[in-house]
Design a protein that fits this description.
The chain is of the alpha/beta class and about 350 residues long. The chain contains nine helices and 18 strands. Helices cover about 25% and strands about 25% of the residues. The chain is globular, with a radius of gyration of 20 Å.
Length: about 350
């Protein structure tokens, strides 16, 4: 299928405007994502409908804690990614084309079939996740448009590297996003992700301005992005540029893929990072990959009472009433907090 958002150049070259790499692709070659190919001057997506993963997940797994909590989300992905994160947690599918000479495996489904499956599974939303949804944008866009017509919400779990053009295009049908803000230095992005920090910050700001509900996730990797000053700068960016009501998820790193020489993140580091976020004025800061910790739970920023008691991806108790604290009636920010 012909791709969206590209321009033709001389000598049958094309320039892709889907993500911030803005690849210039020669005839017969692919972009950095490895799933968009120039065929005689026409940019083709190789993954339209080629779903490699589909699951019914709790929305909390995305993680989204303030967007229709306790609901189910039909989650889908194709192979491919526009990042090369050495700590990729889904490398078997995200890096399949780049690690296996362009291999694109999987069956075929239509947008209508995805939406029907979501409805049959009683899912409130469809999440485009596991890999980077930007690289299967055409299929995500068509599916999201059909989903909205059926009253189903749409969620991107993303590295935030889409262009402003792509975001403007999907905006009418995109309800929420969890964006990985992987670090707060360009050196980290360049060295460990083969990308840049600035476009991610720009995407986050644009999402907020468009009214897309945003939560942010940062995977804390020992010795790479856990310095106190960096975390303070990151938390300040969220508070000042996105708003203190923006939930921040701080996740524990486990050695994986090409980054096996780093230890698991100490729980103490996560607790320290959470305190940094709270000190910056953020109302909702969570720690992930450590079930049983208080960092999973939602506390009222005004009276301090526990409102949502979570264990892993599940809510055991919910004391939010019509988006307000049951105890002091403070507004609890989010969507669908019934």
């Amino acid at each position: 299928m012909e791709a969206y958002l590209y321009e033709s150049l001389k000598d049958k070259q094309v320039k892709c405007h889907l993500c911030s790499h803005r690849c210039v692709i020669k005839d017969g070659r692919r972009g950095i994502c490895s799933v968009r190919e120039n065929r005689s001057g026409v940019l083709e997506t190789l993954v339209y409908g080629r779903i490699i993963a589909s699951h019914v997940d709790p929305i909390e797994k995305k993680p989204l804690y303030h967007f229709w909590p306790e609901s189910l989300s039909y989650s889908i992905a194709t192979v491919g990614c526009n990042f090369r994160c050495v700590f990729c947690q889904n490398a078997d599918i995200a890096q399949m084309p780049s690690d296996h000479k362009g291999t694109v495996r999987c069956g075929y489904v239509t947008p209508e079939e995805v939406v029907d499956a979501a409805m049959k599974s009683k899912c409130k939303s469809i999440s485009y996740t596991y890999t980077e949804p930007t690289i299967f944008f055409e299929f995500a866009y068509d599916t999201a448009k059909h989903a909205h017509a059926k009253g189903i919400q749409n969620v991107f779990v993303t590295n935030g590297y889409m262009t402003s053009e792509a975001l403007e295009m999907i905006n009418p049908y995109l309800d929420a996003a969890n964006v990985d803000l992987k670090a707060f230095t360009n050196d980290f992005y360049k060295t460990y992700c083969s990308a840049k920090l600035a476009p991610v910050k720009e995407t986050l700001i644009q999402m907020k301005s468009l009214g897309i509900f945003v939560e942010v996730t940062t995977l804390i990797i020992p010795g790479l992005n856990d310095e106190k000053q960096e975390l303070e700068d990151l938390a300040a960016f969220i508070a000042e540029s996105l708003g203190t009501e923006t939930p921040w998820h701080i996740s524990r790193f486990h050695p994986t893929y090409k980054l096996m020489d780093r230890p698991h993140t100490p729980v103490e580091t996560l607790v320290s990072a959470r305190n940094i976020g709270l000190k910056a004025g953020l109302k909702y800061v969570y720690t992930g990959n450590v079930p049983g910790e208080n960092g999973e739970k939602t506390f009222c920023y005004q009276c301090g009472k526990m409102l949502m008691d979570r264990w892993g991806f599940y809510v055991r108790k919910n004391r939010v009433e019509n988006s307000r604290c049951k105890y002091c009636r403070a507004i609890i920010h989010g969507v669908g907090l019934l």
